[in-house]
Amino acid sequence: MASKYHVRSVSFPSRSYPAIQRIEQELDKLNQWEVSSNSIAGSICNGLSGLEDLYKGVDDLLNLASSQQVLSRHENEKCLDELLDGSVRLLDVCSIARDILLRFREQVQALQSAFRRRKGDSSIESSVATFTCFRKKMKRDAKKLIASLKQMDKKLGASSLLDQDRNLSEVIKVIREVNVINCSIFQSLLVFLSTSSKPKQCRWSLVSKLMLKEGIDCEEKRENEIETAGAALNELSGSEKVKNAQMKLEALEMSIYDLENCLERLFRPLIKSRSSLLNIISQ
Fold first, then answer.
1. Number of structural domains, the chain?
2. 283 within a domain of the structure (yes/no)
3. The pTM is what?
4. pLDDT tens, position by position, 245-270
5. Can you give the residue range of the structural domain that contains 184?
């Protein structure tokens, strides 16, 4: 019976551990995602693409026998629960955000069609009103998701690693860091969708601030494609302004399409990461 409780020591170098090292390198690259483009949507796309690369490293880490052994120990159940809760919450946010973007793009396309038909000012006004109504609903939905991410951010690090062995601490810590940057990028996407004014500086919990390196000022002036299109729709008098609104809507549609694709590509590694965690628990 004694052997049932004896676990062979698993030893791997901390910072030289290749899988962890790769994740940390990707995290370093992501530190500059917010200033990687002159538009907000472009920066978010770059951040989402960086997350996709980041989760390849997470997948490698979770598939290592040494990682699976330290994570599957019964006494580490609380840490695993935290990771599982985070993975399902991030999956939910990613899925809902994809649906919001799809419906948003459909609304933009419908408005573009109304401009092309040009059956009369009243027709365009009606289409703009429908678009504005959708944007209000989109803001409400996005804010609900932001609240969910903030709850997750508060829970990150709820289970202490002080009494855990070094090997487990290394694995848990780096996955927490991944979750933190994921939360940050998802929240920036949702703020982009939920506000018509310049977003305030991002506020994160103490855990996030400790894990992330020097933050980027979220208030830096960059083009917000939604604001630009909205401003153009508010000034439709004259053919030139109508043409300008059409151009802004086309640019917005392209930005939404790019964001959709980025979320679609990220969704698969998020599923894979959760599946790996579930497999470890079932061992």
1. 1
2. no
3. 0.81
4. 888 899 999 999 999 999 999 999 99
5. 14-268
